[in-house]
């Protein structure tokens, strides 16, 4: 059985680690909140699992400890920033806050960011937007990363390029965060680290053979786009689409030689939408509720659970873990322990197995 921790204890602990690495407390708090939010919803490869990477980047100079993004364009309803390798979760939250401040006036606010240090899990940014009554669309790409092949090809060309969306509903929001590849690089790395095969053949090795061996990716192979060997033309088209939104609109990406040295820094597209600018918020939620009912009331094979509505499982898990404690993926706390020792920060205490809170 894995250990559970109070969400507030994990957040305070994580914020203290980032403060120890040199971030101002208010910025450290934002990073801690974003990483924890991913674990709350079950996105365990991009939650606290990513904290050690970010601490190394801060100490090594790959992430800037202070400074502000450079404004490249600003027309009210849209803006474009160069983040200059500021910590990704902090600069993305800053951009979303700016969009939230403007959306009541403009109805829709769109932004692009370049050279934002790795922004972690897109889903982690969505709850506070829908809780404010707005919809949000996000995607990101990594100009220096080549892991996903084009349809029919072998060469790794694209990054995983997740796309995320959330909108307020009746009893739960519509919410999803999906990569444009069959699996994300984080799951491939985790399987290789644990000496496991992937759950299904997701990769091509350098000879073009389809495989479930995670080692193939590091040996010149690639992850297949969504749709795989038969229908991957769909995922490959979406890979290009997301890179157009996040890189081409921002004016920086695959065409720039400098971008090849940007490590895990991301290019980001985000859009905050006010449903009340198009119809009444109540009518919007009513329509979304009807879509939810269509999914969850559809027929399923005997003995099977209801059809899934995107977001319900993550939203309910989030509520459960806020109330009962966060079930961290095995190994995460062990990876954080050396950093806690370095900064003389006590580890959070695990909850008791019975009657934890």
UniProtKB/TrEMBL annotation:
Assigned keywords, A-Z: Oxidoreductase
Q: Which Gene3D superfamilies match?
A: 1.10.1530.10, Hypothetical oxidoreductase yiak, domain 2
Keyword Ribosomal protein present in the record's keywords: the answer is no
State one Pfam family annotation: Ldh_2
**According to its UniProt record, which protein family does this protein belong to?**
Belongs to the LDH2/MDH2 oxidoreductase family.
The record, for PANTHER family, names: MALATE DEHYDROGENASE, OXIDOREDUCTASE-RELATED
Could you tell me what this protein is called?
Answer: Ldh family oxidoreductase
Q: Which organism is it from?
A: Parahaliea aestuarii
């Amino acid at each position: 059985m894995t250990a559970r921790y109070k969400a507030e204890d994990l957040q305070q602990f994580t914020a203290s680690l980032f403060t120890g690495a040199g971030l101002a407390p208010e910025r450290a708090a934002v990073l801690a909140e974003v990483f924890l939010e991913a674990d709350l919803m079950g996105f365990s490869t991009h939650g606290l699992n990513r904290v050690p990477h970010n601490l190394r980047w801060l100490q090594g100079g790959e992430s800037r400890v202070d400074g502000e993004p450079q404004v490249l364009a600003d027309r009210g309803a849209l803006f474009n920033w160069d983040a200059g390798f500021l910590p990704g979760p902090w600069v993305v939250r800053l951009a979303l806050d700016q969009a939230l401040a403007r959306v009541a006036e403009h109805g829709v606010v769109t932004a692009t960011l370049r050279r934002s240090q790795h922004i972690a899990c897109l889903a982690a940014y969505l709850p506070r937007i829908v809780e404010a009554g707005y919809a949000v669309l996000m995607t990101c790409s990594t100009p220096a990363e080549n892991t996903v092949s084009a349809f029919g090809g072998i060469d790794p060309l694209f990054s995983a390029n997740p796309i995320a969306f959330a909108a307020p509903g009746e009893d739960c929001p519509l919410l999803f965060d999906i990569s444009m590849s069959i699996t994300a690089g984080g799951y491939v790395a985790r399987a290789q680290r644990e000496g496991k095969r992937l759950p299904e053949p997701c990769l091509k090795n350098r000879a073009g053979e389809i495989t479930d061996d995670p080692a193939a990716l590091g040996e010149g192979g690639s992850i297949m786009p969504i749709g795989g060997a038969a229908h991957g033309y769909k995922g490959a088209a979406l890979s290009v689409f997301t890179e157009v939104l996040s890189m081409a609109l921002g004016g920086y990406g695959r065409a720039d030689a400098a971008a090849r040295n940007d490590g895990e820094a991301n290019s980001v597209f985000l859009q905050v939408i006010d449903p009340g600018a198009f119809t009444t918020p109540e009518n919007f939620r009513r329509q979304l509720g009807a879509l939810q009912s269509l999914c969850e009331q559809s027929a399923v094979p005997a003995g099977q659970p209801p059809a899934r509505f995107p977001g319900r499982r993550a939203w309910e898990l989030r509520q459960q873990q806020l109330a009962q404690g966060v079930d961290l993926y095995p190994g995460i706390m062990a990876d954080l322990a050396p950093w806690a020792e370095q900064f003389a920060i006590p580890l959070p205490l695990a909850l008791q197995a019975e009657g934890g809170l």
